[in-house]
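Troubleshooting: if your tokenizer reports a length mismatch, compare your output against this known-good record of 313 residues.
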Amino acid sequence: MTAAQENFEEIIIDLPHIRLTALRYGKGKHTVIALHGWLDNAMSFARLAPYLLAENPDINILAIELAGHGHSQHRPLGGGCHFGDYLYDLYHIADALGIKKFDLLTHSLGSAIASFYAGCFPEQVGRMVCIELYGSRINSDNDPIPARVRRLFPNLDYRVSRSGRQHDLEALIRARLQVGAMKPENAELLLRRSLQETPNGWQFVSDRRLRFWQPSAFSEEQVLSFMREITASVLMIEADQGHAPQMPFLQARYEATRDIQVKRLSGGHHLHMDNAEAVAAEINKFWKEKTFDETVNFIASDAQADAKTTYFY
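Known-good structure output:
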């Protein structure tokens, strides 16, 4: 086990409606809330955290495990895993921890949650780092909702959250690498957090319902309405071999944001794990330029006049 894996504290956060788990990296007073991607868990930030803490000893990185992911509780049976519920969870996480304003460090699905949340509650978010996604990945412009309902409803099964299947760990690692290129040791790091060992193999503890895409989706204009409300300074990191370069709609979202830097680095979708040192260097630079105290949240209606996008391709 590496130092990156050992230097964390297990946290349980009891919210009024659900119990979530988290890993806390570092002991500093300033909290950075980290949100991982779809089907990942808090180990997503294990490689990145040591590089960030080395330059920022005053922070602690609280890597939340989203409902149904990692060791967090599953949603109640009979319902699905809906995007809006993640925003509700984050609101109550901040309230439970007594944090009035915080930074966000996010990847993929976590970045979608963060960008919508920062548009809803701009006064709560100081600085925001998004990796490989900004806003939602799917919009109803390209995938009309009636067609999504017809396609998805027949396969939705909300009755069971855990699969009883047993798996071979090495086979799971190989399967994970086929979904998206990443270093095998990082695929294993993520998988082990989402599994429990049994006498007959390995079993997923994550919620199987996470794999069911929900029929609802925002239109692109609705997505942009959230981006226009964001007053936090934003760093968006794209991977040159990842998903973001294949999303042409991101350009308009960047232009709708008051203060955003867009950087493209070498790597795949999980570059924050595979290329952690380079990603951390960009984040550390961003945090030095946009210090927490100097990041002023103002009335969202003023944002459009001052919108500024900086690209580093």
